[in-house]
Write a structure and sequence with these properties.
The protein has one domain: dinb family like domain (Four Helix Bundle (Hemerythrin (Met), subunit A)), CATH 1.20.120. The chain starts with a helix and ends with a helix. It has a two-stranded antiparallel ribbon. The longest helix has 26 residues. The protein is globular. It is mainly alpha-helical. 65% of the residues lie in helices and 4% in strands.
Length: 178
């Protein structure tokens, strides 16, 4: 992996697990529970200049990453609820890169996004804790990828997503000596 790829995928690309044990599932649920607080601790003293620093050349700024996390995890939470209440619903994809370029992602204070993350992750955690193994087998259909995702795999993906973007910011902070 070259340096640009290493900065783009600091924990590697998502590797879909073949099987997820109940113990791993519990670990994933803990990541969802603790993510917003962990992110808050990482960035709570960032200045606007730091928030407007891209994590890599031609990459999103920290501000955009935080807003992207709120957007993405709101969509994920809705996808979980759809899968739990409908038979293999077709989800609505969205253009995350275009969303990250919108004014609410590029220029406003990150507090609204952090509040969104806090609320989404609190609700998501309580939902996840209530699910049975059978419910984790529920699926939704992703039309762009033309495949079904079960909720265990989806949760694994979003845990990776938390860690992926957290590491972007953490590496930038280390690199800059903040």
């Amino acid at each position: 992996m070259n340096n640009i790829e290493a900065k783009r995928y600091p924990i590697g690309k998502f590797n879909e697990p073949i099987q997820i044990s109940d113990s791993e599932l519990d670990d994933y649920i803990k990541v969802i529970k603790n993510f917003q607080g962990k992110l808050k601790n990482l960035i709570e003293n960032f200045s606007d200049e730091q928030l407007d620093t891209p994590y890599r050349e031609k990459g999103w700024t920290v501000r955009q990453l935080v807003n992207h996390l709120a957007d993405s995890h709101a969509n994920a939470f809705v996808r979980f609820k759809l899968a739990l209440t409908e038979e293999n619903p077709v989800i609505k994809p969205y253009h995350e890169a275009k969303w990250a370029e919108l004014e609410d992602s590029t220029s406003i204070n990150i507090k609204p996004a952090m509040r969104m993350l806090k609320g989404i992750h609190q609700r998501w955690y309580h939902l996840l804790k209530s699910l049975t193994n059978k419910q984790f087998e529920r699926t939704f259909h992703h039309p762009e990828l033309n495949r079904n995702y079960d909720l265990r795999i989806c949760l694994a993906l979003y845990v990776w997503h938390c860690n992926h973007h957290f590491t972007h910011i953490e590496n930038l902070k280390t690199e800059k000596g903040w």
